[in-house]
């Protein structure tokens, strides 16, 4: 028995010597041949479009390790132009540069005996990946429709890599169309993939994403300028984990690249200037399989926390002269090209503010909703899902003007051709003068006093009209009317007019002095040039005016 193990030891030692010598021999004598063969293979498989170059290749058969340093895979621009003239050019090109590629623990025994390539680790240090898309007027060249697993058949039974790591990943995506180039850049990213397995069975595994059991991608300090728009998106960090089915954005923002005045001067569509920012945007239970196979984004749960949403208009430059029919939020969602589905979105601690500069009164008014919290459900343009439930719903609470407890519920019929929607809710106790920050600058009057006990509303609307009921309980309401700024720069009060308004035109309470309770029954005809939310405000204001007993013809017209 001892003799047997002696010979086994001698055999193993001999194999180690042979592999060590073989590694040295390959590295010393076959480097030029391997380089030549690789370059020829790349050229033949791409119709000479790509060239491969690297500084050094090291092979260690004993450890099953391959190291490539300073490698480049680049497209030949002259060859590409020749292919364009011949109408054989592909629409996509790729350029790759890497500092070092290390392949560790290649299982040579399984490769030779079972035709099964297994690798423990593939690591890349500093990878620059450039992808260019350039559509042509001619039909694109046919690319192999077979999957990676099927294309691998005949060469290998299986390809398995336990771990893939890319440190310092720089991605440059470009698209050239109609003479314009759109670019997306992501620098200093990190990429990891676990259990990469290429077989037909793995291809059908719904728990895998691009043949992997899990991918982790971290992108720091990202910025993207939205094409044909003044806006750009920034985030401090994005972390994606396909195994846990999550994506986490930190400090994400959407904002204008130009000044407010520049925006309003160039705007011809009467759109509000938007600024959005959140500390956290967390997507949970993402269906990565549907995303990779169907291009459909389905997220079961979203957390949107700690941020603000700001909207502004400037009537010194903007006019209500563009039709807003068909531009409600749910109608915009239905027009999106990619199929999306967010089952439930949780909103927490978000401040919403609308500001408007008045041309007539040369002042800026604002209304705010602090600490907005609630849920949005069934946000989707997937008609298969909408056949089961056609409504997107929002149930939100906020402190209006920072003091009044507001509860609002919205329902959007996603399949309605007329844009049907509902909105109902209530406002609790607050002081009415809190609204002066929007009333005085835009309508040139203010509430001198008044206690709001409650407001309750139940409304519906379409693209063309809004209707429903509003109940407004209040007392001690007094109005102050101001002179126009053109006559008095300080916009002093019109004392006599204010007195007459309070005595003759406005009920100081509801129920009124005669114990009659006034209900606002709204039948509002939409102005086509007014936005969806401005129309909602106008319909609610119509109900408030009715409850206060004011003749609509005496209500100052806003901008």
Outline type: elongated
Low-confidence stretches: 1-25
Tally of alpha and pi helices: 13
> What structural class should be given to the helix and strand makeup?
alpha+beta
Describe the main β-sheet briefly: 21 strands, mixed
The pLDDT mean sits at 87
Give the DSSP E fraction (strand runs of 2 or more residues): over 45%
Keywords: Membrane, Transmembrane, Transmembrane helix
Protein name: DUF748 domain-containing protein
Organism: Sphingobacterium suaedae
Transmembrane segments: 7-26
Descriptive account of the structure:
It is a single chain. Helix content is 23%, strand content 47%. It contains 13 helices and 21 strands. It has a 21-stranded mixed β-sheet that branches. A hairpin with a 3-residue loop joins strand 15 (391-400) and strand 16 (404-413). The protein starts with a helix and ends in a 12-residue tail after the last helix. Residues 1-25 have low confidence and may be disordered. The chain crosses the membrane at residues 7-26. Keywords: Membrane, Transmembrane, Transmembrane helix. This is DUF748 domain-containing protein.
Task: Map the helices and strands.
Layout: H1 2-29, H2 31-45, E1 50-53, E2 56-60, E3 65-75, H3 77-85, E4 92-106, H4 108-114, E5 116-133, H5 148-152, E6 158-177, E7 180-198, H6 200-204, E8 214-225, E9 231-241, E10 246-256, H7 260-266, E11 273-286, H8 288-294, E12 297-314, H9 329-335, E13 340-357, E14 364-380, H10 383-386, E15 391-400, E16 404-413, E17 421-427, E18 430-431, H11 436-443, E19 445-461, E20 465-481, H12 495-505, E21 519-525, H13 532-547
Parallel strand pairs: 5-6, 12-13
Antiparallel strand pairs: 1-3, 2-3, 3-4, 4-5, 6-7, 7-8, 8-9, 9-10, 10-11, 11-12, 13-14, 14-15, 15-16, 16-17, 17-19, 18-19, 19-20, 20-21
